[in-house]
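Please check the following for our workbook:

***
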Amino acid sequence: MPVIVREDEIAAVEQDRSQITHLLTADVIGSDQIELDHVAVPAGETLSVALDKKMVGWLQILEGAGSLGDTALDTKHIAYLPFGFSGAFVAGSADTRILFARVPDAARFDENIADMPTELRHVDWTREPVLQSEHDARNRIYMATPGLANTKAFKGEMISYPPGTAAPEHHHVGAEHFQYVVAGEGTAMLDGTAHRLCAGDVLYNYQHEPHAFINETDSDFVFVEFFVPGPCETVWSPGANLCAWLPTGVDSDGRKPAREIGYHVHGQDGGI
C-alpha cells in the first residue's frame, strides 16, 4: 500500500542549528530507493550537505535563499548533487526551507551514471517550458530529466491542479515515486479510497499502486513528484484518457522558455 507521511506529525532533529525532518527513510517506506528530508535552516546559519560515494541527490529551495559553495540558490532553483558531494549551505538573511533528496547506490538505476558531471549543477526551473494537459487545466514543469541532470537515476516535475481539475487513475511499472505537496490541498484516490493531502504531506507510491488526484478546493493544488529510477511505464486504468502534455510556448513567468519540449504522453518522455 502507498505510504502517506505527515510532516507536522514527525519530530525534527537538530543538526548544525538546523531542524531536519526525515520524511522518507528505509524504515518508513520499506525501500532503499529514495531518502527525503525537509530541512529548516535559520537565517545566517550553515548546514553541512554530504553524500556518500555511491549516492546522488538533489536539493530544492522551498522558501528563502542561500548559497551552496559558490552557487547562489533561491526558490527558483533545483541543484543536482553528484556522487560523494560535500559542501556547506549557508542561509541568507531569512529562514530557509529545503527539500533534500538522495538516491543510495544510484549506479543500479543508471549504467552510465559515471557520465554525470562531477561538480554541483543547478537549473532555474522557472525558465523551463510550461506544459498543458491535453484534457484539462493541469500544467507541468520538469524539474529533473536526463537532459537537465545528466542521469536517468531520477526524474522529477512540478504539477499544478487548478480548482476543479483531476488526473485519471493510473499506476507505474519500473519505478517508485513520491509526491511532496508544495501548496494547497487535494485528494489522492488510492485504490479507490480518498485521502486528503495538505502542504508538507508526502505520498509514496510503489510500483503497480493505482492512484489519481482531485482538487475540489478553490485554490491551486501543487506538488513536486520524483521517480526513482526515471524511466518507467505508466499504465492507465480502463476508460481513462492518456495523460498527454502540450507545449504552451512560455515559461512560468510568461517568457520564452530556455528550451522547447514537444507534445508527449506521460511515461513516454525519455531523453527530455
